[in-house]
Design goal:
Layout (H helix, E strand, L loop, with lengths): L4 H4 L4 E5 L24 H15 L18 E3 L13 E4 L6 E5 L3 E7 L4 E7 L1 H6 L1 H11 L7 E5 L9 E2 L1 H10 L7 E4 L2 E4 L1 H11 L4 E4 L14 H6 L8 E7 L1
Parallel strand pairs: 2-3, 7-11
Antiparallel strand pairs: 1-12, 3-6, 4-12, 5-6, 5-7, 8-10, 9-10
Length: 252
């Protein structure tokens, strides 16, 4: 369980970036796999999600999760919101109390946001595709439209793959440079290989939207010693699937 020092200062919220420890799953999913989209035993995933809820809230029953699709789509939940099925999106925004909202990652950036004055929270799944398509800007702009002031917003960039383990192809870089030449600073070459700094790119998206109160939790999900699920590490080890880490925020 990893927490943001900046978010901990906000008294009316609870949050956590969970790692893979403390669950019921076995084999490659060992042990706190919260990925309902994985091939894990659904019963174990359900048990894991219950474990997570209990650590966040004594009264909340479920975590609101979306069907993540690497998009720039978000879901807003207020008192009137009702969903028949899990919406396809990559971020959740709410002002509803006692409703844990969460996102799943396995190398992508989990981003938790709070407007402490207007009691708005958001959880964003920021993989390179979603970040590139502008999901962070869309969420922040929506919050501002609802009355948030950027100076009251705190953002925590959770554990994700580090630049040293995020190797990419040249076409990947060209895509980002075409969008903005300044994106060159998020790439580095080492031993003739090209690497991308996803957490720093996510941070730049926040800064562009005038969010200055940002904390980056520099924990590399790829590094097995950090006890996080990693899609890239699973691929390297020739595993046929991988677990998902969950990150949660809730208004008290």
């Amino acid at each position: 369980m990893i927490k943001s020092k900046k978010l901990l200062k906000i008294k009316n919220i609870r949050h956590c970036f969970f790692n893979k420890i403390g669950g019921k799953s076995k084999k490659v999913y060992n042990s706190l796999n919260c990925g309902q989209g994985s091939n894990d035993n659904p019963s174990n995933v359900k048990k894991n999600l219950k474990i997570v809820v209990k650590k966040i809230s004594k009264t909340a029953k479920n975590i609101f999760l979306v069907h993540q699709i690497h998009s720039n789509k978000f879901v807003y939940i207020d008192q009137k919101s009702k969903f028949k099925s899990k919406p396809k999106a990559d971020a959740v925004i709410t002002n509803k109390k006692n409703l844990p909202i969460g996102i799943l990652t396995a190398d992508c950036v989990p981003l938790l946001i709070c407007d402490k004055k207007n009691n708005f929270i958001a959880a964003i799944h920021a993989g390179w595709k979603g970040a590139y398509k502008g999901i962070i800007s869309k969420v922040i702009k929506f919050m501002i439209k609802k009355g948030s002031d950027p100076k009251n917003i705190t953002a925590a960039i959770g554990p994700a793959i580090s630049v040293s383990n995020y190797e990419v192809k040249i076409d990947f870089k060209k895509k980002f440079i075409k969008k903005d030449k300044k994106n060159n600073k998020f790439f580095k070459v080492k031993n003739k290989k090209l690497y991308f700094n996803l957490p720093n790119y996510v941070k730049s998206c926040l800064l562009k939207n005038k969010i200055k109160n940002i904390e980056t939790i520099n924990i590399d999900t790829f590094n097995i010693n950090n006890n996080f699920f990693s899609a890239r590490r699973a691929l390297r080890l020739n595993h046929d699937d991988y677990g998902r880490n969950i990150s949660i925020i809730m208004l008290n």
